[in-house]
Structure prediction request, 298 residues.
Amino acid sequence: MHEVTVAENIVKIALNVMKEHSLKKINKINIKVGKMSCINEESLQFAFEILAKESGLEDVDLHIIRENELFDIYVESIEGEK
Amino acid sequence: MKIKVVEPVLKANRVMAEEIRRYLGSKGVKLINILGSPGAGKTQFIKRTLEQLENKEIIGVIEGDISTTFDAEELVSLGVEIVQINTKGACHLDARMIKQALEQMRLDGKKVIFVENVGNLVCPAEFPLGEDLRILVLSLTEGLHKPLKYPLAFRTSQVLILNKSDLLPHLDVNPSIIREEALSINNQMRIFQLSSLTGEGFSNWMDYFQNYLSTL
Prediction:
C-alpha cells in the first residue's frame, strides 16, 4: 500500500545519482526487494512510471530483483549514459 | 555505464527514526510502537495496560489514525498525555509524523511513549519510528496463518499479543498454531495470550512490562 512512497524515493535516489555522475539519461534502475517486503510489483511499476515521467525520467526500465533473505528494499544499481 | 548504488529506498525514514531514538534516549525516554490490523484491539490493550499502572504519568501516548479522534478520546479519562496524529489517508505512521508529534509532548518525567499505529498489518512494518520495542497486537478473531501471510510485521516485532482470548469458545481457531507460525518467523518473539476486555491473561503481560519499565 505504500508503493507510491517507495516509487518517490526511487526517483529521488535516481535523480541524485544522475546529478552526481553527470548522466544524460538513465536507462535502467535495478532494485532489490526482500521476499518479506509486502510490495506489490505491479503497483510499484505503475507508480514509478508516473512519478518518473513527472521528474523528466522517460523510458526507464525498473528492474525488480526478489531476494530471499532480505526484508529490505534498496536501489542496487543504475544504468545510464554520460 | 552501470553505477553501483546500494541505497535503501526508505533510508530517509530510517535515518530520522534513528535520530528520534537517540533524541529520546538522551531524555531517558523509550518509544513503543504498537501495530495491528484495524479492530485487533490496540486501543483497548493500551487502555488496560495504563489502567493497571500506578504511575501513569511516566507514559505518553501518540495516537495514529487515518482520521477521527475516537481512540484518543477513549484514553483521555485515564489522565495520560495524548497527542493525536491524523494521517489523512496515509496507511502508516512515519518518523517525520512522530517527530512533529513529539514537539507537542512534554518529555520531562516520562519514561515510555506508546505509539498506536494506523490499523494495518502491512505498511507500518516497513517504517521504523525510532522505537525501542515493537508490539504486534493480533486478535484471535482474525483467524489462522496471519504470521505466514504478513511475515514482516511478525519478524520485526519483539512482542506478540494474542488478544480477545475471551472469545475463544466461539471461534474455530487453535492459538497454538498461530504461536508456532509466529515463532517460525521470529523465534525470539515473546507471546502473551490475553483479553484486554476481561483482563484474563493480562497479568503475565503486566509482569513483563513492569520488568521492562524497571530496566529503564
Summary: The domain at 11-214 of chain B is CATH 3.40.50.300 (Rossmann fold). Chain B touches chain A at residues 1-12, 91-92, 120, 122-123, 125-127, 150-152, 155-156 (CB under 8 Å). The helical segments of chain B are 11-26, 42-51, 70-76, 95-103, 146-149, 151-155, 175-185, 202-214.
